[in-house]
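Work Package 4 report. The design task specified in the project plan requires that, given a folded chain encoded as structure tokens, an amino acid be chosen for each position. We show below one input record used in the internal validation round.
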């Protein structure tokens, strides 16, 4: 179901950002700093296990990293591949489920990343632990992982919440993006409305359903990373646009 959600979202994903191109560079610079600090300046091979349309992969490849990137959404992977080719960047893209990453990608990497709140799409502690174990086995002996997530401990939960994103200019009109969060205990369903206004009496509305999240806390993620085998876990709250957890083998 989550693959279908991101298949639908792929054409609109850049509009989730005020300036997607600037965000690519900004996120890559932040991740580069974290990689150098925790894994060393000679780090080269990175696996992006939740690449989407390539926001992090493209930026890191542009900085000279050897990037392999995967996602559960075939449509998102294909879009990422095309965007990388337009920039003349070499990235090895594949379709893979994070929970079964090693079977799809048997190579080893200095760092495995999964950014932009991808991990909480996994709806149980067991699925997250399994995924972190996959990250552990995909990393070299002196490697590790970097994940970024929303801080659910500080999030108001309950009911239905409307979260307007922004209005963006598109060819021939404007695009309005709005999120609806529908809470169900420690979970919520995300529906994204993309409304295209081309100056006519009727607007074209695209509704993307199926984005379910588990409101897992950062403290619990830290515990699961350690349970998966990572010996040292650092939590960085101010280095990226979301809190970051860094796991070292």
């Amino acid at each position: 179901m989550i693959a279908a959600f991101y298949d639908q979202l792929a054409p609109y994903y850049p509009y989730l950002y005020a300036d997607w191109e600037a965000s690519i560079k900004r996120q890559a610079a932040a991740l580069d700093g974290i990689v150098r600090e925790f894994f060393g300046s000679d780090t080269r091979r990175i696996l992006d296990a939740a690449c989407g349309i390539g926001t992090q992969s493209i930026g890191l490849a542009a900085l000279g990293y050897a990037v392999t990137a995967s996602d559960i959404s075939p449509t998102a992977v294909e879009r990422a591949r095309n965007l990388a080719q337009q920039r003349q960047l070499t990235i090895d893209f594949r379709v893979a489920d994070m929970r079964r990453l090693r079977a799809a990608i048997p190579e080893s990497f200095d760092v495995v990343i999964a950014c932009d709140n991808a991990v909480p799409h996994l709806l149980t502690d067991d699925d997250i632990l399994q995924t972190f174990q996959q990250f552990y086995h995909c990393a070299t002996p002196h490697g590790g992982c970097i994940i970024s997530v929303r801080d659910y401990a500080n999030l108001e939960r309950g009911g239905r919440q409307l979260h307007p994103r922004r209005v963006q200019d598109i060819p021939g009109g404007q695009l309005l993006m709005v999120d609806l969060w529908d809470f169900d205990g420690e979970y919520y369903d995300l529906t994204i409305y993309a409304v295209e206004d081309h100056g006519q009496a009727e607007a074209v509305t695209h509704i993307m359903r199926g984005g379910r999240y588990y409101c897992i806390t950062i403290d619990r993620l830290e515990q699961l990373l350690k349970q998966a085998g990572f010996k040292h876990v650092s939590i960085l709250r101010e280095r990226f646009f979301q809190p970051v957890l860094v796991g070292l083998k």
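The longest strand covers residues 173-184. Validation will be extended to a larger panel in the next phase.
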